[in-house]
Amino acid sequence: MDCVRAKIFVAGSTKSKSIRIPVALFGVFRWARRIVCLGLILLLLQVGTFFGYNHFLQKATQQHENLREKLAELSVESNRLNDKMVYYFEQEDLLHTKAGLPVMDHSVRELGTGGEVLPEDLFLRSVSQSAALIAEIRESTERLENKIALNQSSFMSLDNYIDRQQKNYRNIPSIAPAKGRYASAFGHRVHPVTGQIGKMHYGVDISNDPWTPIYAAADGVVQTAQLSSSFGNYVVLNHGNGFLTKYGHMTRYIVRPGQYVERYQVIGYMGNTGLSAGPHLHYEVWLNGDAVNPLAYILPNDHAIE
Fold first, then answer.
1. CB-CB contact of 187 with 210 (8 Å)
2. Distance CA 258, CA 264 (A)
3. Per CATH, which fold does 181-302 belong to?
């Protein structure tokens, strides 16, 4: 075996001692040094990994806690929105009742969403509070979306119904067709010109100065605009739904048959034409072929059905 000779001198003495060291031992020393250095490196890596892991773990834990708090806030907000939808449904039911429409079955609004919950989802909900909150918020959101969609559909139907009714109301006579004094009522009377006793007066007379404007009592179409021996210059408006209004003794009418007119539109001017004892408007309202008292279709204070 190859060896290396080494002398060892004792301090303060001339004596020395020679020893032989195998060359192979130096290789063992070199490997031992490498192993120690590698061990130190691994130790440093382990320490760094430990502190890094703790840092990221704390950060992830904090983020998870923040997420959980945010989810809890969203859950509270979702419940608040659901309570608000309950209020809107109550208002919707009230509007339906006022309009004489059937109220929607409440159970329809509470229909469930989604389908069968998968086992893995159930497991996540059982082991993770955040997963359970997420699932709850998702389901609550889907229910709200369904309720909002139903609410929008219901309000659209209600709006269409009210719009149709609004158009119908526009065709119901509801204003005084002229300003002035009511000179003769609806019913039997003595004719002021012919003197006939018990003559049926199918309208009311409104007296005022000549050329006082005469207005359409509701939206409609001019059915007649002509000169009559008894009514003089007169106009008949067809409002639909069985309603007709008649205006007589005008100085002049300014509409033509087939013309569409709107409530408050001037159709002529007060006069004294035909069998008339003075300037006035003779005004009649007919419903389904029968004359009715026009005063029942004149709202006070110049209000109108809109």
1. no
2. 18
3. Glucose Permease (Domain IIA) (2.70.70)
